[in-house]
Structures are given as C-alpha cells and as structure tokens.
C-alpha cells in the first residue's frame, strides 16, 4: 500500500500545544464551540482514473490513458460543535458547465461559481 500526503509528517506535540492555546483563548474571550468556525478548501479531481490496476499474467502492462486534470475547488465550513454547517462552495472553470446546462445553478446543493480568468 502506498502512503501519500502529510500523514507521516504530523507534529502531534504542536497540535496539542495549539489545542491548549485555542482552549485558553476561547475561555479568555468567552467563546463557545458554536461561535468558532473553520473553513477548508481542497481540490476535487472528479474524472481522475486510478494510477494502479490489475493485469492478467499474459499482459506485460495495462493500457495507458492520459490522466484527466479536470477538477473543482471545494470549500466546506462548519462550526466547531458541528451544529451549523454552511452550504459548500464549488469553484469550476466554466461559468455554465455543459453538465449543468438544464439545471439552474441556484438550485444546486452547493454554491457554484467559476474562476475568473487572470491576465
């Protein structure tokens, strides 16, 4: 199994220090978990094929495909207690994607916007 990401480089001591500092700040400022929000963004490669596959003994390799780079940027936000989750934000390339041509953008379960072209 291949391990990727930041799992192996986690600094548990720093995380515990941060947790203590945050709890102290929440007490000092008289904040509750309902008032503390966190947002995170990530890339979603929605047409990405697996990088590994099974081949039979007769084959020397699997047929190759060019990896799709189609992706959305997705942002999710919730309060620390998990009682209030904001509607997610999806950012794509197209103002009106072909897959959504018969769907009203405002009817989606997420806020959708497109990335403005720079330059």
TrEMBL record:
<protein>
    <submittedName>
        <fullName>Tigger transposable element-derived protein 2</fullName>
    </submittedName>
</protein>
<feature type="domain" description="DDE-1">
    <location>
        <begin position="69"/>
        <end position="116"/>
    </location>
</feature>
<dbReference type="GO" id="GO:0003677">
    <property type="term" value="F:DNA binding"/>
</dbReference>
<dbReference type="InterPro" id="IPR050863">
    <property type="entry name" value="CenT-Element_Derived"/>
</dbReference>
<dbReference type="InterPro" id="IPR004875">
    <property type="entry name" value="DDE_SF_endonuclease_dom"/>
</dbReference>
<dbReference type="Pfam" id="PF03184">
    <property type="entry name" value="DDE_1"/>
</dbReference>
<dbReference type="GO" id="GO:0005634">
    <property type="term" value="C:nucleus"/>
</dbReference>
């Amino acid at each position: 199994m291949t391990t990727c990401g930041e799992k192996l480089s986690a600094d548990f001591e720093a995380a515990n220090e941060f947790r203590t500092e945050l709890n102290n700040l929440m007490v000092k400022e008289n904040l509750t978990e309902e008032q503390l929000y966190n947002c995170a963004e990530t890339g979603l490669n929605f047409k990405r094929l697996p990088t590994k596959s099974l081949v039979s003994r007769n084959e020397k390799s699997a047929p190759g495909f060019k990896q799709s780079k189609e992706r959305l940027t997705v942002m999710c936000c919730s309060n620390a207690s998990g009682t209030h989750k904001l509607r997610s934000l999806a950012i794509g390339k197209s103002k009106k994607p072909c897959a959504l041509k018969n769907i009203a953008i405002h009817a989606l379960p997420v806020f959708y916007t497109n990335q403005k072209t720079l330059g």
